[in-house]
Amino acid sequence: MTARLLLRFLRARLPLILLVLLTTGLTLALAGLLISYAGAAPAVLLGDLGWALLLSLTLLLLYLGGDLLRWWPFARQAELLLTGAPDLAALANLPEGGNLDQATAHDLVRRLYALAVAEVERHQAAHARHLAFMNLWVHQMKTPLAAVTVIADQTADAAEDGAVRTAMADIDEEAAKLADGLELVLDMARLTDFAVDYAIRQVDLLGAVRAVIAARKKQFIRAGIFPEITAAGGADWTILTDDKWNRFAIDQIIANALKYGAQAGRPDQRLRISLVRDGEAVILAIADEGPGIPPEDLPRVFEPFFTGENGRRFAGATGIGLYLVRMAVDRMGHEIAITSAPSAGTTVRLTYLSKLKDGARY
Amino acid sequence: MSYTILIVEDDAKIAATVATCLERYGYTAVRVADFRRVESEYLRCRPDLVIMDVNLPYADGFQLTRSLRRHSAVPILFLSARAGEMEQVLGIESGGDDYITKPFHLDVLLAKVRALLRRAYGEYAQAGINRTVVQVGELELDLSAAEMRYQGAAQPLTRTELKLLHLLMARAGRVLTREECLDALWDDAGFVDDNTLSVNVTRLRTKLDAWGLKEAVETRRGQGYKLAADRLGALS
């Protein structure tokens, strides 16, 4: 980098150097001409010419040296910033500048930085306002939804007519979808605050799986899908995770299996959930018997808003659930893998650590 | 004497529905009308349990709970739209005993109400309300002894059979869909599938058959099951 900078410095001063050399050359030529007119040149004069040449070159070098010293810090810092990947604040952190051009550049950068900061702050405030509004709105929407749910419950409970009870169950099912959607909006907002919102602790994975299934009992029954949990090889299924976000991930995977399984229309489906120990890792596999994911869609299921072929064939795909799952799982340091074959179902595998690797810290 | 439950919920429809539901199950429900005077309403009716919404027009549920705690240790069940851990911690710290997030189901609410009352006033305190013996015609179901009785004879029931018969008897004369049966039988400890339901219905019929009551549990093809009350002798 030093050589490149030096070369650039010299190239920028090429006209000056040439000018000095040219004027010196011309002066010497003129002197030579005068000497040749005057006849033999006294040695003294020649010596003086030599001194003049030396002086001129020395002055040039001194000037260039001083210039280089003043030029160098700014140019070096600028070069470092341009070749590196600095953030906004670091980018604005330039030395004052050793000459007029550098000083102007410095002032411009400072001005730009101030503008950018103001702009970012404005957007952050708008974003925070938007989030706060969404948060408030989602929570407000839960109250009418709760009213719908309890009124449907009450009506079904009091109804003699089977058709009324079926209708109430349908209303309830749709209300549950609305509730899921609202919760997803909240989770999406929460994930942006993920850093302050999670704590890795020892969690009983089997208990978490059971709780998630229990909370979706009505949907399991309506979808005609029955869970089967196998946890062979020990009673201790302690893993290291954030309980809330881990449940969120498991719940989203199960919700997908229920959503597509119910629409696939095959009777008597199972959702096979297995816990397997692999050294210090624990693998949770959730295998459904739903429609499966076409191979060309499989690599993209974790992309935001990707719904693919199943999104076209079935209702209710948002393209958000698995994206959020991936984000949460990645940040907690778990692994997630998904395998599927069309019409043979989908298996999602989550890999956790049951204890910390030696020397590792969360 | 039945338990009095104070409902502090500003959504009129939820409050009315919850009140109706509680009254159907034998509780006395009182709804707060003026949310500026929750404390005096509490002191007036002296409830055995309070169902408390969090977002209320004047003071929020947490503040109200703290002020109620100056008077008594009454069980308080929070209803809130906020599912965050922070809110739950706040709820419990302000003196709440349990927490339900909106939207919720009435059966979950009832289960929590029962659990809180049991915890506060003892296991058998509710015997009068949630009768441990259910009767349809001459068939009696004793929930605490886990047996059914008919004309002086008794037969023990398994946990699942007990739940199934309880549901059929509570809704005697009505067709219960398979979904409704599964919903009642399925609990956190064991997930019940379609096949298990059929097996339990068959076993229950076999047991009833010992008394010549096999026909009492009717199968309605494509609909579900029904307990024919008229086949169980004279209505009590």
Give an overview in words:
The complex is a heterodimer of chains A (362) and B (236). By secondary structure, chain A is an alpha+beta fold. The relative contact order of chain A is 0.07. Chain A contains eleven helices and seven strands. The two termini of chain A are 39 Å apart. Helices cover 63% and strands 13% of the residues of chain A. Chain A has helices spanning 2-12, 14-38, 43-83, 88-91, 100-158, 162-192, 205-215, 217-223, 243-264, 308-313, 321-332; strands at 201-204, 225-230, 238-241, 269-278, 281-287, 335-341, 345-353. In chain A, α2 runs antiparallel to α3 (43-83) and α8 (217-223) packs parallel to α9. In chain A, a hairpin with a 3-residue loop joins β6 (335-341) and β7. The mean pLDDT of chain A is 87. Chain B is α/β, with parallel strands linked by helices and 236 residues long. A five-stranded parallel β-sheet of chain B has the order 2-1-3-4-5, with helices on both faces. Chain B has helices at residues 12-24, 38-45, 61-68, 85-93, 106-121, 159-170, 178-185, 194-209; strands at 4-8, 28-31, 49-53, 76-80, 98-101, 133-136, 139-142, 147-150, 153-156, 175-177, 217-220, 224-227. In chain B, α6 (159-170) packs across α8 (194-209). The model of chain B has no long low-confidence stretch (mean pLDDT 85). The A-B interface holds A 139-140, 142-151, 153-154, 157-158, 160, 162, 165-166, 169, 175-176, 179, 183, 186, 210-211, 213-214, 217-218, 220-222, 224, 226-229, 244, 268 and B 11, 13-14, 17-18, 20-21, 24, 55, 79, 81-83, 85, 101-107, 109, 174-175, 177, 179-180, 182-183, 186-188, 191, 193-194, 223-224.
